[in-house]
From TrEMBL:
Pfam families per the UniProt record, alphabetical: Tubulin_C
Family: Belongs to the tubulin family.
GO molecular function: GTP binding
PANTHER family the record matches: TUBULIN
Full protein name: Tubulin/FtsZ 2-layer sandwich domain-containing protein
Gene Ontology biological process terms, A to Z: microtubule-based process
UniProt source species: Paragonimus westermani
Keyword GTP-binding attached: yes
Superkingdom of the organism of origin: Eukaryota
Keywords associated with the record: GTP-binding, Microtubule, Nucleotide-binding
Length: 265
């Protein structure tokens, strides 16, 4: 925190904080949550944006990553204003737009077809005609599997910068490109990520697996339960938003019923 305060003192116009970290490790999950709480106390008028790396569904790094992730979320949910989720497993204009909506263009393993889009913004860079961008977006919105929340019928906002993408690192292994597209979306489908973490947490916690690692460091069992309730509350909120007319609700209902956790009031 001392180094952060020094960096803030040298800024002319502080707008907020951006953090990239892992959720599944002790340092990435625990230390980052502590820093967020300190920032919330000392710089409560400024926003915190973080890019958390969530556990991969198929490639776990540590046996206690469900614990670390849930505990981190419990502390970060009140401090962070925007979260762009990623995991370690997934990292013509029509094709470009199709790719950002497709599985290969997502930073977290999540099927957009199993939820509703509540907000979506696309940022294009490169020599593109606005009419071609609008046409590509219209085709995406017309596909049967693309569903938007009732209060957001337009669904997608787009901005276009005609300057091509700039390769900041000259000796990077990334090849230069003439055009690019970046999508930020808030979708009810993201609850599947939390459901996966929650189910793994419940399986371990019910058997008290590795719980002593946390208890010996001063954490109380009630804090673990409270963190789990926070995760269940967030998941339930997104589930309720997507409930109306959601064709794939049964998929998540069966998953959520396994949690058996009382929602925090």
């Amino acid at each position: 925190m001392e180094q952060i305060c020094k960096a803030v003192e040298h800024t002319d116009l502080l707008q907020g904080f951006i953090a990239t970290h892992s959720c599944s490790g002790d340092t990435g999950g625990g230390l980052s949550a502590y820093i967020f709480q300190c920032l919330l106390t000392d710089y409560d008028k400024f926003s915190i944006v973080h890019l958390p790396i969530y556990p991969s569904p198929q490639q776990p790094n540590t046996v206690v990553e469900p614990y670390n992730t849930v505990l981190h979320l419990d502390q970060a949910v009140d401090a962070v204003k925007l979260s762009k989720m990623m995991d370690n497993e997934t990292i013509g204009i029509d094709e470009l737009v199709h790719n950002v909506f497709g599985a290969s263009g997502r930073t977290v393993k999540c099927d957009l077809n199993r939820g509703k889009l509540m907000a979506c913004v696309l940022s294009f860079r490169g020599p593109m005609a606005p009419r071609l961008v609008n046409r590509a977006l219209s085709r995406i919105k017309a596909t049967p599997h693309m569903e938007f929340a009732d209060w957001c019928p337009t669904g997608v906002k787009a901005n276009l910068v005609t300057q091509p993408p700039i390769l900041m690192v000259h000796y990077s292994h990334l090849a230069p490109t003439d055009c690019s597209a970046t999508m930020l979306a808030n979708t009810t489908a993201i609850r599947s990520v939390w459901a996966t973490v929650g189910v793994k947490f419940d399986m371990m916690f019910s058997r008290r697996c590795f719980l002593h690692w946390f208890l010996k460091d001063g954490l109380e069992e009630s804090e673990m339960k409270e963190a789990r309730e926070t995760l269940a509350s967030i998941e339930q909120d997104y589930r309720e938003i997507g409930m109306s007319g959601d064709r794939n609700l049964n998929f998540f209902t069966s998953t959520y019923r396994t949690l058996q956790v009382k929602r925090r009031q």
